[in-house]
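A.,

Following up on our hallway conversation. Structure tokens first:
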């Protein structure tokens, strides 16, 4: 009996080891860095638009024009912007770069586009934001919501509402995990610190995401790309509440006066800053970079003080190197 039991135990061990050997390649494959960049346009429930609430600046309904069943808004620069063509796109551009590894420290880059933009034509194709994240060498993923579609409007939509930006990030964690293809990626994306980059008119949704978005503890830093047009009070309040975050404003002649005024406000509050470009964007850095009068505002995301400024900025965030 002892001999038979020993034989059976040995055979069982052999079978188990063989099963484990067969499983190991699939386990290793699931945990391995992804081989190609994955991009997707995904509709979100917690998207900035549609929005049928109140416009904070006026205290009146955001959609203030009706024509039959159609609703619209009196545009800030004249004319009417209709809900069905301008304020109904729920899609978010997601991108996970090749080489992204859920086993390494990672971060989420939220990109807020400016006026007159679409996610495909501008953020993906013209400004090459997914490519810049790939080439930054950071273990980072992209989440870029659509705001007003192809319109001269900086409205934040549902990001005006308290807590919605945090809900947006929660939904992004789920959608990024689906795009990644490994269920173990979800808690990684749920915990990942967030860096928000805003270009031009993206400054306004960013200001509300910081002030009422409900995700202050996750936001590690902010990049403004020729974007500090206003909402100084909200940015000042956030910097006072989050002294360990970094804040970088890069700008040309269009917003130079606003940046100079903001620096004065920081000085009045005893908040330090530098006008030199720091080699590392460590906690507590507040930097302002004047790129000169020759840089074109429309090209700022791809050509400012250097080519691919978003790539350059991300590459200076330490601690998230992608193999």
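Then the amino acids I'd put at each of the 323 positions:
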């Amino acid at each position: 009996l002892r001999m038979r039991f020993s034989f059976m135990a040995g055979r069982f061990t052999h079978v188990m080891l063989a099963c484990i050997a067969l499983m190991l390649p699939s386990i290793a494959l699931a945990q391995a860095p992804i081989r190609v960049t994955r991009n997707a346009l995904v509709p979100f429930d917690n998207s900035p638009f549609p929005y049928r609430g109140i416009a904070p600046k006026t205290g009146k309904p955001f959609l203030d024009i009706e024509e039959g069943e159609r609703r619209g808004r009196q545009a800030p620069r004249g004319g009417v912007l209709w809900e069905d063509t301008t304020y109904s796109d729920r899609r978010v551009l997601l991108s996970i770069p090749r080489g992204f590894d859920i086993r390494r420290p990672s971060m989420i880059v939220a990109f807020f586009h400016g006026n007159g933009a679409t996610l495909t034509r501008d953020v993906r194709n013209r400004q090459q934001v997914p490519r810049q994240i790939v080439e930054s060498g950071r273990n980072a993923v992209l989440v870029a919501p659509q705001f007003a579609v192809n319109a001269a409007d900086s409205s934040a939509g549902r990001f005006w509402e308290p807590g919605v930006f945090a809900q947006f990030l929660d939904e992004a964690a789920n959608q990024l995990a689906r795009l990644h293809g490994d269920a173990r990626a979800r808690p990684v994306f749920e915990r990942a610190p967030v860096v928000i980059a805003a270009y031009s008119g993206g400054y306004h949704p960013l200001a509300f995401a910081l002030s009422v978005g409900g995700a202050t503890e996750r936001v590690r830093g902010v990049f403004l790309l020729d974007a500090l047009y206003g909402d100084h009070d909200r940015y000042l309040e956030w910097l006072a509440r989050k002294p360990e975050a970094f804040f970088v404003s890069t700008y040309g002649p269009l917003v130079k006066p606003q940046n100079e005024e903001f620096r004065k406000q920081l000085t009045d509050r005893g908040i330090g800053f530098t006008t030199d470009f720091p080699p590392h964007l460590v906690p507590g850095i507040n930097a302002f970079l004047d790129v000169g009068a020759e840089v074109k505002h429309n090209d700022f995301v791809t050509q400012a003080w250097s080519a691919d400024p978003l790539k350059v900025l991300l590459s200076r965030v330490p601690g998230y190197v992608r193999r």
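Residues 2-31 form the longest helix (30 residues). Curious whether your intuition agrees with the design.

B.
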